[in-house]
Amino acid sequence: MRKNVITLMSILAWGVGLIAGPVEAKTFVQVKGSDTEVNVVQRLAENFMKKDANTSIAVTGGGSGVGIAAIINRTTDLANSSRPMKDSEVAKAKANGVNPVGIAFAVDGLSVIVNPKNSLKALTMDQIGQIYRGEVTNWKQVGGPDGPITLYGRQPNSGTFVFFREGVVKGDYSNKMNQMNGNAQILEAVKKDAGGIGYVGIGYVVDDAGKVVAGISVLDVAKDSRGKPTSPLQLENIMSGAYPITRPLYQYFDKNNQAKVEGFVKYELSPEGMAVIKKDGFYPLTDQWKKHNAQFGF
Amino acid sequence: MIRNWRQFQDASIHRFFQFNGVLSILILLGIFFILFKDGLPALQQLGVGTFIQMIWNPTSFVQETYGMGAMIISTLMVTFLALLIAVPVGLGCAAYLSEVAPNWVREILKPVIEILAGIPSVVLGFLGIVIIGPWIARVFHLPNGLNALNGAILLAVMSLPTIISISEDAISSVPRAYKEASLALGASKWQTLIRVIVPSALSGIIASVMLGMGRAIGETMTVLMATGNALKTPTHILEAVRTMTATIAIELGEVPFGSEHYHGLFVIGFVLFVMTFLVNLVADIVLAKYQEVER
After folding, report:
1. A204: domain range?
2. Do the chains contact at B230 and A192, CB–CB below 8 Å?
3. Is CATH 1.10.3720.10 the classification given to domain B68-294?
4. What is this model's ipTM?
5. From chain B, which residues contact A within 8 Å (Cβ)?
6. CB B55, CB B233: distance < 8 Å
Protein backbone atom coordinates (compact mmCIF):
# COMPACT_ATOMS: atom_id res chain seq x y z
CA MET A 1 0.00 0.00 0.00
CA ARG A 2 2.78 2.40 0.97
CA LYS A 3 4.45 1.76 -2.38
CA ASN A 4 1.23 2.35 -4.27
CA VAL A 5 0.86 5.65 -2.48
CA ILE A 6 4.41 6.62 -3.36
CA THR A 7 3.89 5.69 -7.00
CA LEU A 8 0.63 7.60 -7.10
CA MET A 9 2.22 10.65 -5.51
CA SER A 10 5.08 10.58 -7.99
CA ILE A 11 2.65 10.38 -10.88
CA LEU A 12 0.72 13.32 -9.44
CA ALA A 13 3.93 15.23 -8.87
CA TRP A 14 4.96 14.56 -12.41
CA GLY A 15 1.56 15.74 -13.66
CA VAL A 16 1.86 18.95 -11.64
CA GLY A 17 5.33 19.42 -13.12
CA LEU A 18 3.87 19.16 -16.59
CA ILE A 19 1.21 21.76 -15.86
CA ALA A 20 3.77 24.08 -14.29
CA GLY A 21 5.50 24.18 -17.66
CA PRO A 22 8.83 22.96 -18.96
CA VAL A 23 12.00 24.08 -17.24
CA GLU A 24 14.80 25.04 -19.60
CA ALA A 25 17.02 22.34 -21.18
CA LYS A 26 16.55 19.40 -18.86
CA THR A 27 18.15 16.05 -19.51
CA PHE A 28 15.33 13.57 -19.79
CA VAL A 29 16.18 9.99 -18.87
CA GLN A 30 13.77 7.17 -19.64
CA VAL A 31 14.00 4.05 -17.45
CA LYS A 32 11.95 0.98 -18.33
CA GLY A 33 11.68 -2.69 -17.43
CA SER A 34 11.61 -4.95 -14.39
CA ASP A 35 8.55 -4.87 -12.18
CA THR A 36 10.70 -6.03 -9.25
CA GLU A 37 12.95 -2.99 -9.63
CA VAL A 38 10.39 -0.35 -10.52
CA ASN A 39 9.64 0.89 -6.98
CA VAL A 40 13.23 1.04 -5.74
CA VAL A 41 14.46 2.74 -8.92
CA GLN A 42 11.56 5.18 -8.69
CA ARG A 43 12.70 6.10 -5.17
CA LEU A 44 16.31 6.43 -6.28
CA ALA A 45 15.21 8.64 -9.17
CA GLU A 46 13.16 10.91 -6.88
CA ASN A 47 16.11 11.39 -4.55
CA PHE A 48 18.49 11.95 -7.44
CA MET A 49 16.21 14.57 -8.99
CA LYS A 50 16.19 16.47 -5.69
CA LYS A 51 19.96 16.75 -5.92
CA ASP A 52 20.23 17.34 -9.64
CA ALA A 53 17.52 19.70 -10.81
CA ASN A 54 18.65 19.47 -14.43
CA THR A 55 17.82 15.82 -14.83
CA SER A 56 14.34 14.45 -15.14
CA ILE A 57 13.91 10.68 -14.82
CA ALA A 58 10.81 8.73 -15.78
CA VAL A 59 10.60 5.16 -14.48
CA THR A 60 8.10 2.66 -15.86
CA GLY A 61 7.64 -1.10 -15.43
CA GLY A 62 6.42 -3.70 -17.87
CA GLY A 63 8.84 -6.51 -17.06
CA SER A 64 12.52 -7.16 -17.66
CA GLY A 65 11.83 -8.56 -21.13
CA VAL A 66 10.08 -5.33 -22.07
CA GLY A 67 13.03 -3.27 -20.78
CA ILE A 68 15.56 -5.37 -22.69
CA ALA A 69 13.49 -5.18 -25.88
CA ALA A 70 13.43 -1.40 -25.39
CA ILE A 71 17.21 -1.11 -25.00
CA ILE A 72 17.66 -3.21 -28.16
CA ASN A 73 15.23 -0.98 -30.05
CA ARG A 74 16.72 2.18 -28.48
CA THR A 75 13.43 3.32 -26.99
CA THR A 76 14.81 3.68 -23.46
CA ASP A 77 18.01 5.02 -21.89
CA LEU A 78 18.20 2.53 -19.05
CA ALA A 79 16.67 -0.94 -18.97
CA ASN A 80 15.91 -2.40 -15.56
CA SER A 81 16.34 -6.15 -15.65
CA SER A 82 16.24 -8.73 -12.89
CA ARG A 83 17.98 -11.25 -15.17
CA PRO A 84 21.12 -10.98 -17.31
CA MET A 85 20.64 -10.37 -21.03
CA LYS A 86 20.69 -13.59 -23.05
CA ASP A 87 23.43 -14.05 -25.67
CA SER A 88 20.83 -13.91 -28.40
CA GLU A 89 19.60 -10.57 -27.05
CA VAL A 90 23.13 -9.14 -26.89
CA ALA A 91 23.70 -10.23 -30.49
CA LYS A 92 20.42 -8.57 -31.54
CA ALA A 93 21.46 -5.36 -29.78
CA LYS A 94 24.90 -5.36 -31.42
CA ALA A 95 23.29 -5.91 -34.82
CA ASN A 96 21.21 -2.83 -34.08
CA GLY A 97 24.28 -0.72 -33.25
CA VAL A 98 23.65 -0.89 -29.50
CA ASN A 99 26.50 -1.91 -27.20
CA PRO A 100 24.76 -3.01 -23.98
CA VAL A 101 26.52 -2.66 -20.62
CA GLY A 102 24.95 -4.28 -17.55
CA ILE A 103 25.61 -2.76 -14.14
CA ALA A 104 24.42 -4.56 -11.01
CA PHE A 105 23.08 -2.02 -8.51
CA ALA A 106 21.43 -4.14 -5.81
CA VAL A 107 21.03 -7.72 -4.64
CA ASP A 108 17.66 -9.42 -4.25
CA GLY A 109 16.87 -12.34 -2.01
CA LEU A 110 14.01 -13.70 -4.07
CA SER A 111 11.45 -14.71 -1.45
CA VAL A 112 9.14 -17.70 -1.52
CA ILE A 113 5.93 -16.74 0.25
CA VAL A 114 2.90 -18.61 1.59
CA ASN A 115 -0.23 -17.72 3.53
CA PRO A 116 0.23 -17.40 7.33
CA LYS A 117 -2.45 -20.09 7.79
CA ASN A 118 0.07 -22.51 6.30
CA SER A 119 2.15 -23.93 9.17
CA LEU A 120 5.06 -24.74 6.86
CA LYS A 121 8.19 -22.76 7.65
CA ALA A 122 10.85 -24.09 5.29
CA LEU A 123 11.38 -25.86 1.95
CA THR A 124 14.38 -27.15 0.06
CA MET A 125 15.25 -25.93 -3.44
CA ASP A 126 14.27 -29.36 -4.73
CA GLN A 127 10.85 -29.24 -3.11
CA ILE A 128 10.16 -25.77 -4.54
CA GLY A 129 11.12 -27.12 -7.97
CA GLN A 130 8.76 -30.08 -7.57
CA ILE A 131 5.94 -27.80 -6.47
CA TYR A 132 6.33 -25.41 -9.41
CA ARG A 133 6.79 -28.20 -11.95
CA GLY A 134 3.46 -29.56 -10.73
CA GLU A 135 4.89 -32.84 -9.41
CA VAL A 136 3.85 -32.06 -5.84
CA THR A 137 0.27 -30.82 -5.53
CA ASN A 138 -0.56 -31.18 -1.84
CA TRP A 139 1.15 -29.38 1.04
CA LYS A 140 1.37 -32.57 3.11
CA GLN A 141 3.78 -34.07 0.55
CA VAL A 142 6.36 -31.49 1.63
CA GLY A 143 5.58 -31.59 5.36
CA GLY A 144 2.79 -29.04 5.49
CA PRO A 145 -0.92 -29.31 6.34
CA ASP A 146 -3.23 -31.41 4.16
CA GLY A 147 -4.52 -29.20 1.36
CA PRO A 148 -4.03 -28.47 -2.34
CA ILE A 149 -1.30 -26.09 -3.51
CA THR A 150 -2.21 -23.12 -5.70
CA LEU A 151 0.71 -21.85 -7.78
CA TYR A 152 1.22 -18.15 -8.39
CA GLY A 153 3.99 -16.97 -10.69
CA ARG A 154 4.83 -14.26 -13.15
CA GLN A 155 4.40 -13.91 -16.91
CA PRO A 156 7.13 -14.75 -19.48
CA ASN A 157 8.03 -11.07 -19.96
CA SER A 158 9.22 -11.04 -16.34
CA GLY A 159 12.90 -11.44 -15.47
CA THR A 160 11.81 -13.05 -12.21
CA PHE A 161 9.81 -15.66 -14.17
CA VAL A 162 12.93 -16.54 -16.18
CA PHE A 163 15.38 -16.40 -13.26
CA PHE A 164 13.22 -18.58 -11.03
CA ARG A 165 12.64 -21.09 -13.82
CA GLU A 166 16.32 -21.36 -14.67
CA GLY A 167 17.63 -21.34 -11.10
CA VAL A 168 14.96 -23.14 -9.07
CA VAL A 169 12.34 -24.90 -11.19
CA LYS A 170 14.87 -26.21 -13.75
CA GLY A 171 12.06 -27.25 -16.05
CA ASP A 172 8.79 -25.84 -17.30
CA TYR A 173 6.34 -24.34 -14.86
CA SER A 174 3.19 -26.37 -14.36
CA ASN A 175 0.48 -25.35 -16.81
CA LYS A 176 -1.78 -24.81 -13.83
CA MET A 177 0.31 -21.90 -12.52
CA ASN A 178 -1.59 -18.62 -12.46
CA GLN A 179 0.47 -16.10 -14.40
CA MET A 180 0.12 -12.86 -12.46
CA ASN A 181 0.75 -9.33 -13.67
CA GLY A 182 3.41 -8.33 -11.16
CA ASN A 183 4.93 -8.85 -7.71
CA ALA A 184 2.11 -6.94 -6.02
CA GLN A 185 -0.57 -9.17 -7.57
CA ILE A 186 1.20 -12.32 -6.38
CA LEU A 187 1.43 -10.84 -2.90
CA GLU A 188 -2.29 -10.00 -2.84
CA ALA A 189 -3.26 -13.44 -4.15
CA VAL A 190 -1.19 -15.31 -1.54
CA LYS A 191 -2.63 -13.12 1.23
CA LYS A 192 -6.11 -14.34 0.30
CA ASP A 193 -5.31 -17.97 -0.55
CA ALA A 194 -4.54 -20.35 2.34
CA GLY A 195 -3.05 -22.89 -0.11
CA GLY A 196 -1.13 -20.38 -2.20
CA ILE A 197 2.59 -20.15 -2.88
CA GLY A 198 4.36 -17.35 -4.73
CA TYR A 199 7.76 -15.80 -5.39
CA VAL A 200 8.49 -12.07 -5.17
CA GLY A 201 11.45 -9.72 -4.81
CA ILE A 202 12.47 -9.10 -1.19
CA GLY A 203 11.57 -5.41 -1.57
CA TYR A 204 7.93 -6.42 -1.80
CA VAL A 205 7.78 -8.45 1.42
CA VAL A 206 9.36 -5.99 3.88
CA ASP A 207 8.13 -2.53 4.83
CA ASP A 208 10.18 0.60 5.58
CA ALA A 209 10.98 -0.61 9.07
CA GLY A 210 12.35 -3.89 7.72
CA LYS A 211 9.38 -5.93 9.02
CA VAL A 212 7.57 -8.53 6.96
CA VAL A 213 4.30 -7.07 5.62
CA ALA A 214 1.10 -8.36 7.23
CA GLY A 215 -0.74 -11.32 5.75
CA ILE A 216 2.10 -13.38 4.33
CA SER A 217 4.76 -15.72 5.64
CA VAL A 218 8.26 -15.86 4.11
CA LEU A 219 9.69 -19.36 3.88
CA ASP A 220 13.23 -20.31 4.81
CA VAL A 221 14.96 -22.13 1.96
CA ALA A 222 17.64 -24.82 2.13
CA LYS A 223 20.08 -25.63 -0.69
CA ASP A 224 19.36 -29.37 -0.33
CA SER A 225 17.88 -31.85 2.17
CA ARG A 226 21.03 -31.77 4.32
CA GLY A 227 21.45 -28.01 4.24
CA LYS A 228 20.13 -25.69 6.91
CA PRO A 229 17.15 -23.60 5.79
CA THR A 230 17.95 -19.89 5.85
CA SER A 231 15.79 -16.80 5.63
CA PRO A 232 16.13 -14.11 2.96
CA LEU A 233 15.26 -11.54 5.63
CA GLN A 234 18.72 -11.57 7.24
CA LEU A 235 21.46 -9.54 5.59
CA GLU A 236 24.19 -12.02 6.53
CA ASN A 237 22.43 -14.90 4.74
CA ILE A 238 22.45 -12.91 1.53
CA MET A 239 26.01 -11.60 1.91
CA SER A 240 27.45 -15.04 2.69
CA GLY A 241 25.42 -16.72 -0.02
CA ALA A 242 23.77 -19.03 2.53
CA TYR A 243 20.33 -18.13 1.13
CA PRO A 244 20.23 -20.02 -2.17
CA ILE A 245 17.95 -17.78 -4.29
CA THR A 246 19.87 -14.51 -4.51
CA ARG A 247 20.42 -12.57 -7.68
CA PRO A 248 21.77 -9.22 -8.76
CA LEU A 249 19.39 -6.57 -10.09
CA TYR A 250 20.76 -5.10 -13.30
CA GLN A 251 20.46 -1.92 -15.25
CA TYR A 252 21.48 -2.01 -18.90
CA PHE A 253 22.44 0.98 -21.01
CA ASP A 254 24.01 1.55 -24.41
CA LYS A 255 27.76 2.30 -24.09
CA ASN A 256 27.35 5.01 -26.76
CA ASN A 257 24.73 6.65 -24.54
CA GLN A 258 26.68 6.32 -21.28
CA ALA A 259 27.19 10.05 -20.67
CA LYS A 260 23.43 10.55 -20.30
CA VAL A 261 22.87 7.94 -17.61
CA GLU A 262 26.27 7.85 -15.88
CA GLY A 263 25.37 10.40 -13.22
CA PHE A 264 22.28 8.50 -12.12
CA VAL A 265 23.92 5.07 -12.12
CA LYS A 266 26.88 6.38 -10.09
CA TYR A 267 24.43 7.89 -7.60
CA GLU A 268 22.69 4.52 -7.21
CA LEU A 269 26.02 2.86 -6.45
CA SER A 270 27.08 5.57 -3.95
CA PRO A 271 26.61 5.02 -0.20
CA GLU A 272 23.59 7.32 -0.40
CA GLY A 273 22.01 5.23 -3.14
CA MET A 274 22.76 2.03 -1.22
CA ALA A 275 20.93 3.47 1.80
CA VAL A 276 17.81 4.00 -0.32
CA ILE A 277 18.10 0.46 -1.68
CA LYS A 278 18.37 -0.97 1.84
CA LYS A 279 15.40 1.09 3.00
CA ASP A 280 13.33 -0.39 0.19
CA GLY A 281 14.16 -3.90 1.40
CA PHE A 282 16.79 -4.93 -1.13
CA TYR A 283 20.44 -5.60 -0.28
CA PRO A 284 23.62 -3.69 -1.11
CA LEU A 285 26.13 -5.11 -3.57
CA THR A 286 28.47 -7.90 -2.55
CA ASP A 287 32.17 -7.78 -3.49
CA GLN A 288 31.54 -10.11 -6.41
CA TRP A 289 29.16 -7.63 -8.02
CA LYS A 290 31.31 -4.62 -7.14
CA LYS A 291 34.08 -6.34 -9.11
CA HIS A 292 31.64 -6.95 -11.96
CA ASN A 293 30.84 -3.23 -12.09
CA ALA A 294 34.50 -2.20 -11.81
CA GLN A 295 35.31 -3.74 -15.19
CA PHE A 296 32.97 -1.16 -16.73
CA GLY A 297 34.49 1.68 -14.72
CA PHE A 298 31.69 1.90 -12.11
CA MET B 1 -19.90 28.15 -66.52
CA ILE B 2 -21.85 28.10 -63.29
CA ARG B 3 -23.50 24.93 -64.41
CA ASN B 4 -20.10 23.29 -64.99
CA TRP B 5 -18.89 24.45 -61.61
CA ARG B 6 -21.89 22.85 -59.97
CA GLN B 7 -21.32 19.66 -61.89
CA PHE B 8 -17.71 19.71 -60.78
CA GLN B 9 -18.78 20.24 -57.16
CA ASP B 10 -21.24 17.39 -57.30
CA ALA B 11 -18.70 15.10 -58.91
CA SER B 12 -16.02 15.97 -56.31
CA ILE B 13 -18.32 15.30 -53.43
CA HIS B 14 -19.41 12.08 -55.07
CA ARG B 15 -15.76 11.00 -55.38
CA PHE B 16 -15.03 12.06 -51.79
CA PHE B 17 -17.78 9.90 -50.36
CA GLN B 18 -16.82 7.06 -52.65
CA PHE B 19 -13.23 7.32 -51.41
CA ASN B 20 -14.38 7.20 -47.78
CA GLY B 21 -16.46 4.13 -48.49
CA VAL B 22 -13.61 2.34 -50.23
CA LEU B 23 -11.08 3.42 -47.60
CA SER B 24 -12.60 1.24 -44.90
CA ILE B 25 -12.43 -1.75 -47.24
CA LEU B 26 -8.79 -0.95 -48.00
CA ILE B 27 -7.94 -0.71 -44.30
CA LEU B 28 -9.67 -4.03 -43.66
CA LEU B 29 -7.79 -5.73 -46.49
CA GLY B 30 -4.56 -4.11 -45.31
CA ILE B 31 -4.94 -5.50 -41.80
CA PHE B 32 -5.85 -8.89 -43.21
CA PHE B 33 -2.77 -8.82 -45.45
CA ILE B 34 -0.34 -7.67 -42.73
CA LEU B 35 -1.52 -10.29 -40.24
CA PHE B 36 -1.25 -12.98 -42.89
CA LYS B 37 2.16 -11.82 -44.17
CA ASP B 38 3.67 -11.64 -40.68
CA GLY B 39 2.10 -14.91 -39.60
CA LEU B 40 3.15 -16.84 -42.70
CA PRO B 41 6.87 -17.28 -41.79
CA ALA B 42 5.84 -19.06 -38.59
CA LEU B 43 3.51 -21.37 -40.49
CA GLN B 44 6.27 -22.14 -43.00
CA GLN B 45 9.03 -22.69 -40.45
CA LEU B 46 7.03 -24.58 -37.85
CA GLY B 47 4.34 -26.16 -39.97
CA VAL B 48 0.60 -25.73 -39.55
CA GLY B 49 0.43 -28.87 -37.41
CA THR B 50 2.50 -27.19 -34.70
CA PHE B 51 -0.31 -24.74 -34.07
CA ILE B 52 -2.98 -27.46 -33.92
CA GLN B 53 -2.01 -28.60 -30.43
CA MET B 54 -3.30 -27.59 -27.04
CA ILE B 55 -0.49 -25.84 -25.18
CA TRP B 56 1.18 -22.55 -26.09
CA ASN B 57 4.64 -22.18 -24.55
CA PRO B 58 7.14 -20.69 -27.02
CA THR B 59 9.61 -19.68 -24.29
CA SER B 60 9.66 -23.14 -22.72
CA PHE B 61 12.65 -24.35 -20.77
CA VAL B 62 12.34 -27.86 -22.18
CA GLN B 63 10.33 -28.05 -25.40
CA GLU B 64 8.84 -25.07 -27.20
CA THR B 65 5.21 -25.57 -28.14
CA TYR B 66 2.93 -23.38 -30.23
CA GLY B 67 -0.44 -25.05 -29.68
CA MET B 68 -3.43 -22.72 -29.94
CA GLY B 69 -6.11 -25.14 -28.76
CA ALA B 70 -6.22 -24.12 -25.11
CA MET B 71 -6.39 -20.41 -25.82
CA ILE B 72 -9.09 -20.73 -28.48
CA ILE B 73 -11.20 -22.77 -26.06
CA SER B 74 -10.51 -20.18 -23.36
CA THR B 75 -11.54 -17.29 -25.59
CA LEU B 76 -14.76 -19.02 -26.69
CA MET B 77 -15.55 -20.10 -23.13
CA VAL B 78 -15.22 -16.58 -21.74
CA THR B 79 -17.07 -14.99 -24.66
CA PHE B 80 -20.10 -17.30 -24.66
CA LEU B 81 -20.35 -17.21 -20.89
CA ALA B 82 -20.33 -13.42 -21.07
CA LEU B 83 -23.13 -13.45 -23.65
CA LEU B 84 -25.08 -15.93 -21.55
CA ILE B 85 -25.10 -13.32 -18.80
CA ALA B 86 -25.35 -10.17 -20.91
CA VAL B 87 -28.04 -11.12 -23.44
CA PRO B 88 -30.96 -11.81 -21.03
CA VAL B 89 -30.06 -8.83 -18.85
CA GLY B 90 -29.48 -6.59 -21.86
CA LEU B 91 -32.69 -7.53 -23.66
CA GLY B 92 -34.71 -7.25 -20.48
CA CYS B 93 -33.30 -3.82 -19.87
CA ALA B 94 -33.93 -2.74 -23.48
CA ALA B 95 -37.53 -3.96 -23.37
CA TYR B 96 -38.08 -2.23 -20.04
CA LEU B 97 -36.61 1.03 -21.33
CA SER B 98 -38.63 1.18 -24.51
CA GLU B 99 -41.93 -0.39 -23.48
CA VAL B 100 -42.43 -0.26 -19.74
CA ALA B 101 -40.39 2.49 -18.13
CA PRO B 102 -42.01 5.88 -17.51
CA ASN B 103 -40.37 8.78 -19.30
CA TRP B 104 -38.44 10.17 -16.37
CA VAL B 105 -36.87 6.78 -15.61
CA ARG B 106 -35.78 6.50 -19.24
CA GLU B 107 -34.27 9.97 -19.12
CA ILE B 108 -32.07 8.88 -16.21
CA LEU B 109 -31.29 5.31 -17.25
CA LYS B 110 -30.18 5.93 -20.82
CA PRO B 111 -27.30 8.30 -20.04
CA VAL B 112 -26.24 6.08 -17.12
CA ILE B 113 -25.95 3.12 -19.50
CA GLU B 114 -23.91 5.24 -21.91
CA ILE B 115 -21.56 6.10 -19.05
CA LEU B 116 -21.16 2.38 -18.34
CA ALA B 117 -19.70 2.05 -21.84
CA GLY B 118 -17.08 4.64 -20.98
CA ILE B 119 -15.50 2.78 -18.06
CA PRO B 120 -11.90 1.98 -19.01
CA SER B 121 -11.29 -1.76 -19.28
CA VAL B 122 -8.36 -1.59 -16.86
CA VAL B 123 -10.69 -0.22 -14.17
CA LEU B 124 -13.09 -3.12 -14.70
CA GLY B 125 -10.15 -5.52 -14.51
CA PHE B 126 -9.21 -3.97 -11.20
CA LEU B 127 -12.74 -4.48 -9.89
CA GLY B 128 -12.45 -8.08 -11.05
CA ILE B 129 -9.38 -8.55 -8.88
CA VAL B 130 -10.56 -6.80 -5.72
CA ILE B 131 -14.35 -7.39 -5.71
CA ILE B 132 -15.63 -10.10 -8.06
CA GLY B 133 -12.62 -12.41 -7.60
CA PRO B 134 -12.88 -12.69 -3.81
CA TRP B 135 -16.66 -12.98 -4.13
CA ILE B 136 -16.41 -15.93 -6.58
CA ALA B 137 -13.80 -17.53 -4.33
CA ARG B 138 -16.13 -17.31 -1.35
CA VAL B 139 -19.27 -18.50 -3.13
CA PHE B 140 -17.65 -21.51 -4.82
CA HIS B 141 -15.10 -22.27 -2.06
CA LEU B 142 -12.12 -21.79 -4.35
CA PRO B 143 -8.56 -20.77 -3.43
CA ASN B 144 -8.87 -17.72 -5.69
CA GLY B 145 -11.41 -16.05 -7.95
CA LEU B 146 -9.20 -15.54 -11.00
CA ASN B 147 -10.97 -17.68 -13.57
CA ALA B 148 -13.12 -17.77 -16.70
CA LEU B 149 -16.30 -16.86 -14.79
CA ASN B 150 -14.71 -13.69 -13.40
CA GLY B 151 -13.61 -12.61 -16.89
CA ALA B 152 -17.05 -13.42 -18.29
CA ILE B 153 -18.89 -11.33 -15.69
CA LEU B 154 -16.68 -8.34 -16.47
CA LEU B 155 -17.05 -8.82 -20.23
CA ALA B 156 -20.80 -9.05 -19.76
CA VAL B 157 -20.71 -5.65 -18.06
CA MET B 158 -18.64 -4.30 -20.94
CA SER B 159 -20.92 -5.60 -23.67
CA LEU B 160 -24.16 -4.61 -21.89
CA PRO B 161 -24.21 -0.97 -23.13
CA THR B 162 -23.83 -2.11 -26.75
CA ILE B 163 -26.56 -4.71 -26.43
CA ILE B 164 -28.94 -2.43 -24.55
CA SER B 165 -28.65 0.68 -26.69
CA ILE B 166 -28.86 -1.06 -30.06
CA SER B 167 -31.72 -3.38 -29.03
CA GLU B 168 -33.54 -0.46 -27.48
CA ASP B 169 -33.26 1.48 -30.74
CA ALA B 170 -34.52 -1.54 -32.65
CA ILE B 171 -37.48 -2.04 -30.32
CA SER B 172 -38.37 1.66 -30.35
CA SER B 173 -38.37 1.76 -34.14
CA VAL B 174 -41.04 -0.91 -34.43
CA PRO B 175 -44.05 0.92 -35.95
CA ARG B 176 -46.66 1.99 -33.40
CA ALA B 177 -49.36 0.44 -35.56
CA TYR B 178 -48.08 -3.09 -34.81
CA LYS B 179 -48.40 -2.52 -31.10
CA GLU B 180 -51.77 -0.83 -31.35
CA ALA B 181 -53.13 -3.56 -33.62
CA SER B 182 -51.97 -6.24 -31.22
CA LEU B 183 -53.48 -4.52 -28.20
CA ALA B 184 -56.70 -3.89 -30.10
CA LEU B 185 -56.97 -7.60 -30.84
CA GLY B 186 -57.00 -8.20 -27.10
CA ALA B 187 -53.38 -9.26 -26.51
CA SER B 188 -51.91 -8.32 -23.18
CA LYS B 189 -48.90 -6.02 -22.91
CA TRP B 190 -46.64 -9.02 -22.26
CA GLN B 191 -47.99 -10.95 -25.27
CA THR B 192 -47.56 -7.88 -27.46
CA LEU B 193 -43.98 -7.45 -26.35
CA ILE B 194 -42.96 -11.09 -26.78
CA ARG B 195 -44.99 -12.10 -29.85
CA VAL B 196 -45.12 -8.86 -31.84
CA ILE B 197 -42.53 -6.28 -30.88
CA VAL B 198 -39.48 -8.45 -30.22
CA PRO B 199 -39.90 -10.53 -33.41
CA SER B 200 -40.29 -7.32 -35.41
CA ALA B 201 -37.11 -5.90 -33.91
CA LEU B 202 -35.21 -9.18 -34.17
CA SER B 203 -32.74 -8.03 -36.82
CA GLY B 204 -31.58 -5.16 -34.64
CA ILE B 205 -31.48 -7.39 -31.58
CA ILE B 206 -29.31 -9.98 -33.34
CA ALA B 207 -27.02 -7.20 -34.55
CA SER B 208 -26.68 -5.92 -30.99
CA VAL B 209 -25.79 -9.38 -29.67
CA MET B 210 -23.23 -9.90 -32.43
CA LEU B 211 -21.63 -6.52 -31.78
CA GLY B 212 -21.55 -7.30 -28.08
CA MET B 213 -19.86 -10.59 -28.92
CA GLY B 214 -17.29 -8.81 -31.05
CA ARG B 215 -16.55 -6.53 -28.13
CA ALA B 216 -16.14 -9.51 -25.81
CA ILE B 217 -13.90 -11.61 -28.08
CA GLY B 218 -11.45 -8.79 -28.68
CA GLU B 219 -11.28 -7.39 -25.15
CA THR B 220 -7.81 -7.74 -23.66
CA MET B 221 -6.96 -5.84 -20.51
CA THR B 222 -9.94 -6.98 -18.45
CA VAL B 223 -9.46 -10.68 -19.14
CA LEU B 224 -5.70 -10.38 -18.74
CA MET B 225 -6.19 -9.04 -15.23
CA ALA B 226 -9.09 -11.20 -14.09
CA THR B 227 -8.68 -14.69 -15.51
CA GLY B 228 -5.44 -15.95 -13.94
CA ASN B 229 -3.67 -16.72 -17.26
CA ALA B 230 -2.81 -20.39 -16.71
CA LEU B 231 -1.59 -22.19 -19.84
CA LYS B 232 -3.54 -25.42 -19.36
CA THR B 233 -6.61 -26.40 -21.36
CA PRO B 234 -9.65 -25.34 -19.34
CA THR B 235 -12.19 -28.01 -18.51
CA HIS B 236 -14.72 -25.90 -16.62
CA ILE B 237 -15.59 -22.26 -15.99
CA LEU B 238 -14.00 -22.05 -12.55
CA GLU B 239 -10.48 -22.63 -13.87
CA ALA B 240 -7.87 -20.04 -14.77
CA VAL B 241 -7.74 -19.42 -18.52
CA ARG B 242 -5.44 -17.49 -20.81
CA THR B 243 -7.25 -16.07 -23.84
CA MET B 244 -5.83 -15.28 -27.28
CA THR B 245 -5.83 -11.54 -26.67
CA ALA B 246 -4.11 -11.92 -23.30
CA THR B 247 -1.41 -14.11 -24.86
CA ILE B 248 -0.63 -11.51 -27.51
CA ALA B 249 -0.64 -8.69 -24.96
CA ILE B 250 1.63 -10.53 -22.51
CA GLU B 251 4.18 -11.74 -25.04
CA LEU B 252 4.40 -9.13 -27.79
CA GLY B 253 6.21 -6.61 -25.57
CA GLU B 254 9.33 -8.69 -25.12
CA VAL B 255 9.44 -10.98 -28.11
CA PRO B 256 12.58 -10.60 -30.29
CA PHE B 257 11.55 -8.94 -33.54
CA GLY B 258 11.48 -11.36 -36.46
CA SER B 259 11.75 -14.57 -34.42
CA GLU B 260 9.49 -17.60 -34.84
CA HIS B 261 7.76 -16.58 -31.62
CA TYR B 262 7.12 -13.10 -33.03
CA HIS B 263 5.54 -14.50 -36.19
CA GLY B 264 3.66 -17.05 -34.10
CA LEU B 265 1.90 -14.20 -32.27
CA PHE B 266 0.74 -12.89 -35.64
CA VAL B 267 -0.77 -16.30 -36.36
CA ILE B 268 -2.86 -15.86 -33.19
CA GLY B 269 -3.81 -12.37 -34.35
CA PHE B 270 -4.80 -13.73 -37.74
CA VAL B 271 -6.97 -16.50 -36.28
CA LEU B 272 -8.59 -14.00 -33.90
CA PHE B 273 -9.31 -11.68 -36.82
CA VAL B 274 -10.85 -14.50 -38.84
CA MET B 275 -13.04 -15.41 -35.85
CA THR B 276 -14.40 -11.87 -35.42
CA PHE B 277 -14.79 -11.59 -39.18
CA LEU B 278 -16.90 -14.76 -39.24
CA VAL B 279 -19.05 -13.53 -36.36
CA ASN B 280 -19.81 -10.34 -38.28
CA LEU B 281 -20.37 -12.19 -41.54
CA VAL B 282 -22.85 -14.58 -39.93
CA ALA B 283 -24.60 -11.60 -38.36
CA ASP B 284 -24.89 -9.92 -41.76
CA ILE B 285 -26.25 -13.04 -43.43
CA VAL B 286 -28.83 -13.51 -40.67
CA LEU B 287 -29.83 -9.88 -41.00
CA ALA B 288 -30.19 -10.07 -44.77
CA LYS B 289 -32.29 -13.26 -44.56
CA TYR B 290 -34.51 -11.70 -41.94
CA GLN B 291 -35.00 -8.50 -43.87
CA GLU B 292 -36.06 -10.47 -46.96
CA VAL B 293 -38.74 -12.23 -44.92
CA GLU B 294 -39.79 -8.87 -43.49
CA ARG B 295 -40.42 -7.48 -46.96
Report:
1. 111-239
2. no
3. yes
4. 0.80
5. 55, 57, 59-63, 129, 134, 137, 143-144, 146, 224-225, 228-232, 240, 242, 250-251, 253-257
6. yes
